[in-house]
Structures are given as structure tokens and as C-alpha cells.
Task: inverse folding
């Protein structure tokens, strides 16, 4: 009786998930290398409607949000002029070892030099394979080529390796701009030739502000509309209660 | 006499089914490729009434209402641009073909992903088939050529949940398989304004059923309490 209550509640829960995702995208509108969240929707099971319905009358039972991974479109490039800022133009990721030892992938190229002269990310992830700068290297003496070769004072000291995975949408996000490879995403493999590394530039977030705003309004209004179905079901129960005075 | 009670009650129950269907449309107002439903009702058998004294026929009276079906409107909806390489939309009629564990299914929700083998799959992980009948693979650039995606027309499509549709491939009159566009999704066929209006109309019909029951109850009450009383 009046399954619509639960049907509508399922729809509201799905919109809430979408709203959470949009909020996260907006909060990361200025995060280097951030990739926006892709939320999908799907309808739920259809079941035989109750009395007085003919055989084969199928009623839907709501909607659910589906995680469709991340959207990996290129973010806009921001010129910073800092020699330790690098951005990947095209498909690919830098390989890093997170402070907890896990091997991860990131597009955040705001690099630092740690106490041992090794290149690392802002959150302390070490670039893999390690690139160690000679002691006393000044930031201005570092040159990074489009193939990722790092030169200190004109001498090659290592290479920023750019890798990619077969299905980036399936990468697992672990925060700190880092992603872990999963069985669904496939393991790291060499990035296509078209991918280049650019020095003095950072890749901005690929959150599209206008799109995020529209999505937010859409999710909020749909949430509101669906809640009306709950109110109506409630009113109908009240009417049913009023049959016996 | 008390037949009216049951008729009115069946009307209320039928409106409940309609209300549930509207709630499902509203819940899916954002589901890509969702198709809106319509609940149809019809009278449930009728009786021929006779005058109990003269035996003359009075006429027929219907005995109840039945929800005869839920009809899905499979009209294509406008595509909206998303820019995602794996979002595919069909401009025009037709469905994508999906290989599921339960056999071939169809869908118009083109929000796809790539799996570990590089195949194009639905969000549930079922491979999407190409024109050659084999699962499509995502190219090294993370894209799929829309021309390679199979689009079929169905003669009797039926919704099966999880965005999937069952049906028999065939060409219904006046339909031509549409074109696949990458970077776009079909918007939901649920029309919130229509749903709101239907919801109000349905609730008022429900309320009318309640009033009918109350009135019949009052009449019966009169019959029970006043007819036999002798006043004066």
C-alpha cells in the first residue's frame, strides 16, 4: 500500500548523493589536478502492482545513484613560472609513493624538494622512480623537458615518468589528489606519445563551475519535487484514515 | 445497495497504484534515458440490473475499477551535452545493445565506463555490443567511435529495471534507427510538471472515493437507525 513513499525516498537519496558530489566538485574548484566526480542514475526493479491491477502491470520502485568514476578531461593550465611546477598535457599520471607506502598516481605537479633532495608532491608522496637533485641545487637551475627529463645545471639527474591506465574512470580516489590503480582500471602502462610534461605550469581543477551550479539547482529542485510525492502519499493516508469517522 | 462501497474502495486502491507510478517517475527525473509511464484504468466487468418487482431491465452497472496497465512512453527525449567521452546518446529512435548474464538487453542510458579488459560497459559492468555483435573496446585515447555502436529498434520494448529494457528486435512502423552522439546523454522522460498535476488529480480522485464511502455509510446509518423508529 502506497509504496510510493519508499519509491520517492529512494529518489531523494539518489539526489542527495548527486548534491554531495557537486559540493565536492565545487569545494575543489581550485585544487590542482582535481578531477570531477561523475554520478549516474539508474531506475530500480519493476514489480507486479498490487490489487486492483491486471496481471503484468509493473510498478517501478525508485532510483539509485551510480558511481561512474571520475571525468578525466584536461583541466585548464595555469602559468605559475615556478620551476618545480609541472603539468601533464594529455592523458597520463605521475607515479608517486604515498607516505604510507602505497603506489599511487597523481596529476598534481606542484612539486617540492624533500630533505634528501628528492622530488616529492605537496602531501609528501615521493615521485617514482625517485629523482634526486644534487646538494645545493637552486630551484632556478632545474629544467624539466617535455619528455619529463629533469636537468640540474644542465646535467640529467632523472626523469618524471608519465604512465596511464586503460580505464581511468575506474581508478580509486584516495584523497590528496592521488588515485590507486584497481583491477577494473588496469595497471600502469606507458603514456601515449602525445602526452607531454610542461614546466612552470599547473593543471587546474576540471570542475566546470557553470555546469556544477546547474547540476546543483537541478538536484535540489528534483529533491524538492520528489518530496512532494511523499507529502501526497501522506495526505492520501490521512484521507484513508478519514473513511471511518 | 452496499455495492457502491466496494466500487468506491476499488477506485481508491487504483489511485494508490497511480500514485506509486507517479512517485517512480519523479524519483527518476534525473535518470538518463528514463522513460515516463502512464497508468491506465478500466471498468472491471458490469452487471445487468433488473427491477426486482417487474423484472424489467434497468441497465448495466460496472462493478469496480481495475488498473489495466502501465504504458511506457518511449518517445526519444532531447540530448544534453556532457562532454564526457564515454557518455553516448542516441539522437532518434533505437536502443544500445547490452550483453548481460541473463541474455541480451537494451538501454537508452548511455552513461558508460571502460572495464579492465578495455571493453565499453554499462555502470553495472555489462558489455555494450558493437555493430559486429561483439563487445566494443575503448580506444587508446579513451574514446569510442560512435559509428561502431550498435543501435537496434524494438517492436515491444518493456522496462526491466537498472536502465535495461527487454524486447524483440524489429522495425516498428515509422521508426528509423537514430545516430549515436558521443559526449551527450539523453535526458529523463519524466516531466515533473505533468507528474505534479497528475499527482494532485489522483489525490483528489482518491478523496472523492472517500466521500462516496462516507455518504453511503451515512445512508446505511439512516436505514439502520431511522427507518424503523416510530415517532410521536
Result:
Amino acid at each position: 500500500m502506497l509504496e510510493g513513499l519508499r519509491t520517492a525516498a529512494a529518489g531523494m537519496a539518489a539526489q542527495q548523493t548527486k548534491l554531495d558530489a557537486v559540493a565536492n566538485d565545487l569545494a575543489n574548484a581550485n585544487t590542482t589536478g582535481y578531477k570531477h566526480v561523475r554520478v549516474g542514475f539508474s531506475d530500480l526493479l519493476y514489480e507486479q502492482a498490487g490489487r486492483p491491477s491486471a496481471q503484468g502491470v509493473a510498478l517501478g520502485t525508485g532510483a539509485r545513484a551510480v558511481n561512474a568514476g571520475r571525468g578525466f578531461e584536461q583541466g585548464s593550465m595555469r602559468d605559475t613560472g615556478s620551476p618545480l611546477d609541472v603539468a601533464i598535457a594529455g592523458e597520463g599520471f605521475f607515479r608517486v609513493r604515498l607516505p604510507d607506502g602505497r603506489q599511487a598516481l597523481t596529476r598534481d605537479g606542484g612539486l617540492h624538494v624533500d630533505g634528501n633532495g628528492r622530488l616529492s608532491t605537496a602531501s609528501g608522496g615521493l615521485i617514482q622512480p625517485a629523482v634526486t637533485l644534487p646538494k645545493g641545487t637552486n630551484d632556478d637551475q632545474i629544467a624539466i623537458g617535455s619528455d619529463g627529463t629533469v636537468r640540474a645545471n644542465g646535467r640529467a639527474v632523472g626523469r618524471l615518468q608519465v604512465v596511464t591506465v586503460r580505464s581511468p574512470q575506474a581508478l580509486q580516489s584516495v584523497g590528496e589528489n592521488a588515485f590507486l590503480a584497481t583491477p577494473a582500471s588496469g595497471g600502469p602502462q606507458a603514456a601515449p606519445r602525445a602526452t607531454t610534461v610542461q614546466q612552470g605550469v599547473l593543471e587546474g581543477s576540471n570542475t566546470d563551475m557553470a555546469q556544477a551550479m546547474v547540476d546543483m539547482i537541478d538536484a535540489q529542485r528534483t529533491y524538492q519535487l520528489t518530496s512532494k510525492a511523499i507529502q501526497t502519499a501522506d495526505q492520501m493516508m490521512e484521507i484513508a484514515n478519514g473513511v471511518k469517522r | 445497495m452496499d455495492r457502491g462501497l466496494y466500487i468506491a474502495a476499488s477506485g481508491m486502491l487504483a489511485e494508490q497504484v497511480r500514485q506509486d507510478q507517479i512517485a517512480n517517475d519523479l524519483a527518476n527525473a534525473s535518470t538518463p534515458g528514463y522513460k515516463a509511464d502512464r497508468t491506465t484504468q478500466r471498468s472491471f466487468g458490469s452487471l445487468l440490473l433488473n427491477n426486482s418487482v417487474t423484472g424489467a431491465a434497468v441497465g448495466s452497472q460496472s462493478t469496480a475499477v481495475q488498473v489495466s496497465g502501465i504504458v511506457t512512453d518511449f518517445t526519444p527525449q532531447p540530448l544534453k551535452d556532457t562532454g564526457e567521452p564515454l557518455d553516448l546518446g542516441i539522437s532518434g529512435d533505437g536502443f544500445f545493445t547490452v550483453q548481460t548474464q541473463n541474455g541480451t538487453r537494451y538501454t537508452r542510458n548511455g552513461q558508460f565506463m571502460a572495464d579492465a579488459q578495455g571493453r565499453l560497459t554499462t555502470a553495472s559492468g555489462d558489455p555494450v555490443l558493437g555493430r559486429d555483435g561483439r563487445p566494443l573496446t575503448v580506444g587508446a585515447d579513451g574514446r569510442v567511435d560512435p559509428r561502431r555502436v550498435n543501435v537496434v529498434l524494438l517492436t515491444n520494448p518493456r522496462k526491466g529495471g537498472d536502465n535495461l529494457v527487454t524486447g524483440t528486435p524489429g522495425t516498428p512502423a515509422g521508426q528509423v534507427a537514430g545516430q549515436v552522439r558521443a559526449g551527450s546523454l539523453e535526458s529523463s522522460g519524466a516531466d515533473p510538471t505533468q507528474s505534479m498535476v497528475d499527482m494532485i488529480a489522483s489525490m483528489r480522485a482518491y478523496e472523492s472515493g472517500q466521500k462516496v464511502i462516507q455518504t453511503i455509510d451515512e445512508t446505511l446509518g439512516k436505514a439502520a437507525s431511522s427507518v424503523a423508529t416510530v415517532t410521536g
